Amino acid sequence: MQYDEIDARLLRLVQRDATQSAADLSEQVNLSPSACHRRLQRLMAQGIITGQVALLDPRRVGRPTTVFVEISLSTQADEVLDAFEAAVARIPDVLECHLMTGAYDYLLKVVARDSEDFATIHRRHLARLPGVAKLQSSFALKTVCKTTALPV
């Protein structure tokens, strides 16, 4: 996908605040509102902009605890991987699931109310995932830096 410096500036702006109008964005990138709107539509059509979301404060919605879970599977067979991925995608407390290289197969980012809530998530969902041989959980003590903005 090709984009120019004006597109890159638009992408940086909407990553910080997607609620800005095309008129507001156009002033910041020195374009007319209609040209700015066309560029945004093109970036969406090309799949560079894939959606717009509201980011919530985990503490204010009662999910201040972040836990990273390393999971090793009993086998790498396609049917086990597929069953695991389908099952983990249905757990609402799992924000991210990544297939990894290295010492374990998957890394999950899980949110919970507290350690007791995580214990329940672990018992009811994570320990029952298909093909799991080993789980190791690490509680995040502090978020040092966090962004959803990709460098463009």
Textual characterization of the structure:
The protein is an alpha+beta fold and 152 residues long. It folds into two domains: 5-45, Arc Repressor Mutant, subunit A (Orthogonal Bundle), CATH 1.10.10; 65-139, 2-Layer Sandwich (Alpha-Beta Plaits). 36% of the residues lie in helices and 20% in strands. It is built from five helices and four strands. It has a four-stranded antiparallel sheet with strand order 2-3-1-4. β2 and β3 form a beta hairpin. α2 packs across α3. The longest helix has 13 residues, at 33-45. The mean pLDDT is 96.
How would you sum up this structure in a few lines?
The protein has helices at residues 5-16, 22-29, 33-45, 78-88, 115-124; strands spanning 65-73, 94-99, 106-112, 132-139.
